[in-house]
Design goal:
Arc Repressor Mutant, subunit A; two-stranded parallel ribbon
């Protein structure tokens, strides 16, 4: 039995180890595709059954609109982060002022 694209995306995401991440483009490339946006659509509509927080944007930002919830997962899993501001910064926004450290956390099977 051959999986459709969406099923294959979900299988790959389910295999990403705790504390590691892949970009939408990485997931697409693993399937021989350049369809990072298609991966994003699959994750938005069907990704709740897999560790969705482990698929991030190419610049290391977490999934759009899910920064705080994803941050809880990253902290629990010990995923390497980079902070863009400090708690002393009056404009500090915990949901948006971090990126995943792709050099340290990127998963490639």
């Amino acid at each position: 039995m051959q999986l459709d694209f969406g099923g294959a995306v979900l299988l790959i995401v389910a295999d990403i180890p705790s504390g590691r991440v892949a970009t939408y483009g990485d997931v697409a490339a693993m399937l021989g595709s350049r369809g990072a946006r298609a991966v994003g659509r699959i994750m938005a509509t069907e990704g709740s059954s897999v560790p969705w927080w482990r698929v991030v944007r190419s610049d290391g930002r977490p999934p759009a609109g899910h920064g705080l919830v994803a941050l809880e997962h990253y902290r629990d899993e010990g995923t390497p982060l980079r902070w863009l501001a400090t708690d002393d910064d009056a404009e500090f926004d915990e949901a948006n002022d971090y990126r995943l450290d792709l050099a340290a956390a990127r998963w490639r099977p």
